[in-house]
Amino acid sequence: MSMRSTLRLAALLSWPGFYAPQAMAEIALGWPVACQVGETCEIQHYVDHGGGAAAKDYRCGTVTYKGHNGTDIRLLTMADERKGVNVLAAAPGKVLRARDGMADVSVAVIGHDAIKDRDCGNALVIAHADGFETQYCHMAQGTLMVKPGDVVAAGQPIGHVGLSGDTEFPHLHITVRRDGKVIDPFAYGETEGACSGGVSLWSPAIQRTLAYKAGTVLNAGLASRAVTMSDIENGLGPEVLTPDSPAVLAYVQAITLRQGDVQRIVLIGPNGPLLDHSEPPLPSNKDQVYMGVGRKRPALGWPPGRYAATYTVARDGKVFIEKTFAAQIGP
Prior knowledge:
The protein is mainly β. The chain has helices at residues 78-83, 107-110, 204-207, 229-233, and strands at residues 41-45, 71-75, 86-88, 93-99, 122-127, 132-139, 151-152, 157-160, 171-178, 181-183, 216-223, 247-257, 262-269, 272-278, 286-296, 305-315, 318-329.
């Protein structure tokens, strides 16, 4: 194993470029968060392959940002973060460095000056065989379960997902390096400028769950009142709708949409369509968007039956996100 213990943790946040291997690496990475993509977490950002040009992910998409050197695995809500979600060692190895003691507070609240040279937040670096290293950022304060010098097994809990360092949402940022160079675990060895290729370093057992998404729905539901992003972040669960509910509102929180994307919600009740609303094309790329539309209670109350909303996002005239969610009123 390569043990470069003299490197400072803060220096690991620099952008050293990509490692282009001559041969395939002998490493398989397990998923580093105790969550299931598409159900209890989502990928917010991939590694930036843009070089000196505009940022682009390994599929030449926009699910990244300039200089991003890792994979961001986002929990669905702050309520999930508060429950405690384990960060897991992606492969067997030895802990090189660790940092704890930083508060779990959004950088939008405390400002960048408060975390200067500590963007990674509470963090660990683990060395693996053949010069590989994994770096785990933004973990929850006081949850680190290992220390420098400890030997860890693949899948071993090493801390909790948190909100420390340079982040505004609960997630794990994992950077993979080989011989000090950043590599993309989704496209190891991909030819520079290509939009596909390379080899996935993720374990074959989980690769099918990690299909690329150009954008996705993080949270959605039907409610009887106006819903705010704060409501969603604090774990708004399914509401019980009744004939006397003051409204039926469909809400959606989506991530990683692109300039020009068109969002639409169609709401259908037991007696037919209730609304069909489209938003104007997005003026810029968005890490996160919120959309909520609804109808007030009719004079005679809501008729019993199924109420279903379908949210779609169209890009260049083609729908690439579609999600339907429903609730029942009465028997």
